[in-house]
What we know:
single chain, alpha+beta
Amino acid sequence: MAQRYVKLSIHGKVQGVGFRYSAIREAQRLGINGWIKNEADGSVSAEAYGEKGAVDEFIKWCWQGPPAAQVRSVEISEELENVEEVDKFNYTKG
């Protein structure tokens, strides 16, 4: 199966609304790996990798987020080099 690795920057009302925890649950449901963290500018950044269809579904989910979120934009950049192996999806404090 084709693999996909993406970096995401999610903007809007995405901090203090359970976005990271909900994203972790969604990533686990989809079977993808990576991490997610809050940024100082109020955005949330994430890296996700796994089966292409699952990563695509995760990106779609990020446009919605949990019920209290108000996502304004999701910036996506693809990176194929220096992918660090991570065996789960979790968050880091940022």
